[in-house]
Please model this.
Amino acid sequence: MCLMQEYGHSAGARKSACDFEAYRKRATIIVEEYFATDDVVSATNELRELAMPSYNYYFVKKLVSMAMDRHDKEKEMAAVLLSALYADVIDAPQVYRGFSKLVESADDLIVDIPDTVDVLALFIARAVVDDILPPAFLKKQIALLSTDSKGVEVLKRAEKGYLAAPMRVECIERRWRGSKTESVEDVKARINNLLMEYVVSGDKKEAYRCIKDLKVSFFHHEIVKRALIMAMEKRQVEDKLMDLLEEAAEEGLINSSQIRKGFDRMIDTVDDLSLDIPNAQRILKSLISKAASDGWLCASSLKSLSLEPRKRSLEDSLTRTFKMKCQSIIQEYFLSGDISEVCSCLEAENKTWSSELNAIFVKRLITLAMDRKNREKEMASVLLSSLCFPADDVVNGFVMLIESAADTALDNPVVVEDLAMFLARAVVDEVLAPQHLEEVESQFSGTDSVGGKVLQMAKSLLKARLSGERILRCWGGGGGSDGSRPGWAVEDVKDKIGKLLEEYESGGDIREACRCMKELGMPFFHHEVVKKALVRVMEKKNERLWGLLEHCFGSGHITMNQMTKGFLRVAESLDDLALDVPDARKQFVDYVERAKTKGWLDSSFNYTSNSNSNSNSIHVKENGTSQ
Model:
């Protein structure tokens, strides 16, 4: 039996090797013929007919490496072909892998192509500008290469020499002028102009003439996309634009592949369009139905477009406004590192502490961080820990992130790895408990789903030896508010708070304890002081730390908001605490009443003990919000 299996594996490996060798030979011929004919459509069709999508990364590598050793004309042709093939024939991960292979082989390429560093850097910059390679590619690849490799030089040249330069898009698009003098932005502008002129004049013949003059049949999906957006924005010209697309499809001016690609791109961006166009999903659905019923679109070949409304307890307009303000708050935070300012802004924008808006903020924070450097990723994790959102809200935020991961992967092919690390970091920072991972996993079926892969990887990270330390340092430590000081990592702050409480408990000076708290410079994290102090009081029956809390509240060092958050965190951890302190629930009820009497907690704060229930028995009301 084992012999048969071994034979089967060996035969499979030989077949795979033969397939790859055949693909390599055919790919080389396709590239050679393309450079000779400049026929994008023919090259696209030939590559599609190969029907070996798992090897398409090699085509990317071969096309670019062959172009690097030729004139500017061929370099520009290669960039144009990659843009045409992207998503339609070669999917995003294969493009990403192809460029990764090119960077890894830079040391070999430079032997035959002396200017490899500059030329390959420009190809990578061009791919980023043309939206076929995510900006995150550069920093992720640098981390994988040895510091003395030519690949690192290539990536640094792409980032600092091209992508960071003034007028970068114009410079990069125009670098290889050759016989290709129009940039992608120029073509988009011409498409927009011809559609606007058609809407005004209604002259189809002139519109078709302009489309032919573009001579970019591989880019006709942009015409479809732009026409659909215009139809959705200006409903009065919807019929006119749909007639234009229908006749263009019937005459073969825009082929079925480009029609489908244009509609698919609309489906990918419809959520963002909803911010500006009310009912964008419903309008797009009606346009798809109309095109399908008129016979010029195969709706079954499109990506799915769900009209199921997401669960919302707020008006759409309020949610949209909050999303836009989130963007500004987070971008400002990445520049300043001021967590207290974020807290103030969130309190102003989310006065009711809505769970839905909290989840939206979590999603937006991590989404923006994933497309930035390690500094911003670390800052996002620190902020998430400092905000002390209810765990359920954070769980919902991660569920929303995983649901949109397929779209995010178009710009960030390593989205699964990033989300897994953020999820594992949330557990290490005690933002989530390990059982919350099961709650997230229950939302997604199968280990092959994106959610399943994220959860599986997060669990693997947490099970690894010294996982806590590694995950805490995964992005290089804390993100401070200035360039000279990296800032405290959350674990360091927790350790310092523990030490100052221990020192005070053993007879330390109250003024010294308050000085240490102030020196941390993190008033938004004082709920950690409340939590640790209250747990110590309950464990050791020592009132000395209770006196410290009383002094801190009276002197204004700890606000009612931070006090409330601290008590809430203790309430959420009572099940675990009760294992070591059997009367923990009874003690907590007593301390809640004492705190309310002293004015530390609002009178609406309530806790109900239900030790007979297997479910979470915490019922707390804070400013009218149940948890």
